Amino acid sequence: MSPSQPRLRAMLSLAAMAILIIALISSPWLIGDLAQQMQFDARLAPPSLDHWFGTDALGRDLSARTIAGLALSFWVGCLAALLSTLIALSLAAFATLSARLDTLVSLLIDTLLSVPHLILLVLIAFALGGGTQAVIIAVAVTHWPNLARVLRAELWQLRQAPYVRMSRALGKSRWFVLHGHLLPHLLPQCLIGALLLFPHAILHEAALTFLGFGLSPSQPAIGVLLADAMRYLSGGYWWLGVFPGLALLLMVLGFERLSTQLRRAL
To answer: 36 in a domain, yes or no?
Structure first.
């Protein structure tokens, strides 16, 4: 495989995901309030040309609600992934300042990794009272340890680089070395780390909402759609769960593939 092939694949994946992101961002203007419109004469209608994904128990168009749910999950995942990356980078930077701080950060990472993930998510979301803000905070607070461990190891390795040692010998402060030499080197790792955190953030947001600890039932979130579908799947209304779940899965796999291709290219 030539060196240009991973970059070409990464660019193609980036272009495909850019189209998806633009579609999700513009979805409020494209579908309007269609996701909330009720048509009681079309309750639980199967997929058709009028309703591509069918309708739910209140006659609302499931395709519009799925698109609205993906857009909501996208924003929640973006904010949670960015906040989690910022936490990981900050703690990794603090760990390089002294041996005590490094020990403290390592202990914090090991402690969080030892706690069952979903249980910690539920506890934090429940303690914050649920809702969009609680989900973002819960996902961000629980998803940074693995990235922080990678960034911390990278920073410790960079500290022994010749240009960093020369900068210290010239009397530069620790903040100058960290800000001028170390952090710019970590930007690719932070980018890939945020992209890798994004699918996990979306899935855990949907899981929290499905369990009743996440977004409000009045919001057309994917977790809400899947939770509502559980009441009707036994009656043969398969489209209520298949299409929202499949749309969520495709978006998660798309971003995961994008992050993998960018990691190979960078």
So the answer is: no
3-state secondary structure of 189: helix
Q: Nearest Cα to 191, choosing from 141, 145, 260, 245?
A: 260
| Residue 215 included in any domain | yes
Q: Which residue has the higher pLDDT, 11 or 85?
A: 85
Higher per-residue pLDDT: 6 or 233: 233
Asked if 124 and 137 touch (Cβ cutoff 8 Å), the reply is yes
Answer yes or no: are the C-beta atoms of 56 and 228 closer than 8 Å. Answer: yes
Counted domains in the chain: 1
Structure tokens belonging to residue 213: 């600890």
Q: Which residue, 231, 211, 232, 234, is CA-closest to 223?
A: 211
The pLDDT tens digits for 99-114 are: 888 888 888 888 888 8
Assign residue 205 the CATH number of its domain: 1.10.3720.10
pTM: 0.80
The answer to whether position 43 is within a domain reads no
Q: Is 40 part of a structural domain of the chain?
A: no
Of 110, 12, 26, the C-alpha closest to 70 is 26
Q: Nearest Cα to 150, choosing from 13, 263, 265?
A: 263
Q: pLDDT by residue (tens digit) across 195-210?
A: 888 888 888 888 888 8
Residue 99, domain extent: 4-31+53-265
Locate tokens 């992101």: which residue?
Answer: 21
